[in-house]
From TrEMBL:
Classification via Pfam families: GDP_Man_Dehyd
Name of the protein: dTDP-glucose 4,6-dehydratase
Enzyme Commission number(s) from the entry: 4.2.1.46
Organism (species): Desulfotignum phosphitoxidans DSM 13687
Transmembrane residue ranges: 4-25
Amino acid sequence: TTNSMNLLITGGAGFIGTNFVYYWIEKYPQDHIVVLDALTYAGNRDNLERADNHPGFTFIHGNILDQPLVENLLVSHHIDTIVHFAAESHVDRSIQGPDAFIETNIVGTHTLLKAARNIWLDKDPRPGHRFHHISTDEVYGTLKSDDPPFSETTPYAPNSPYAASKAASDHLVRAYHKTYGLNTTISNCSNNYGPFQFTEKLIPLMITNILAGKPIPVYGDGRQIRDWLYVDDHNRGIDLILKKGTPGQVYNIGGSNEQINLDIVHQVCDRVLHTFEQNKTLARTYPDCPCSKGIHPNTLITHVTDRPGHDRRYAIDAAKIQTELGFTPKETFESGFQKTLNWYLTQPPKT
Ligand code: NAD
């Protein structure tokens, strides 16, 4: 139909991108989706297996740093919307080696912006185009316990190489709107959790370690505060911005769900134990899990040396996207976590 969209999803084989592809295919089956993903350690082609049956779905194995490739995709697939997830995303890796973060997050985002400008504003003008950039609340730095949450006007103060690279990319997106008139939007979201997340991140790491009977590492005193959002709530926020957002605007997305890391760890332990009590067959699949022997998994909690420069508290003021676009999260931590756990329980056990 004339209203259908042609989307280029960068990083669509990663955690949030994969969930976004499934969200979009289900809600807008008439749209065309092209995923561009370099399949780094964090990307998994198999994540998108179910999407391959969808007639409007195309997967391209390639790098966002390849400008001719991106330009070719924009023209040949008549792309009108870029949703840019591709990034190096793990703070600990950015501390060990920042170079890949500068390349993909800064130079890569700039390459996409250049391609979009060349094609959409010059060679193949597309008045209805949109470049949506996915970013993080970590660009705002850290909060003290009595500070108000981050709003869209909070000054940038990134503390890790990851956060600094995302901050730089946000500024470039803004500049391409102000300078060249590219139709851009940006969302800065809090910590996500859900299916398909790589096991280096806190929640999947906890789940897989509990199932394998391995220690659950907790940084420092575990009193850091994060605002957790179920991944499909993030994706509904992006959907609202794409459909109703104002060009040039920034929207914070959050769950209004501030939690102390250690409390999250305990809730996760409680829920895994509860799930094993409800479903006795799990004990056979996960013989090394303490829950299989009726032992509480919180016995696995191990405090490890804190991450350098570890931000103490993040919290999002989501009033703008709530009042302007009608966003509200659907999941509580309890309901979202249960969905997440159920998905990890369908995956082959890790040893
Ligand atoms: P992820 O690490 O799971 O996935 C990143 C994907 O990008 C992978 O599939 C990877 O192969 C791909 N990629 C990396 N470099 C590439 C390149 N040069 N060219 C093409 N593809 C490349 O990340 P995620 O957790 O899904 O995060 C997605 C986006 O959301 C990132 O921009 C991240 O900064 C942002 N974000 C994440 C969170 C979170 O909690 N995970 C919160 C807020 C914002």
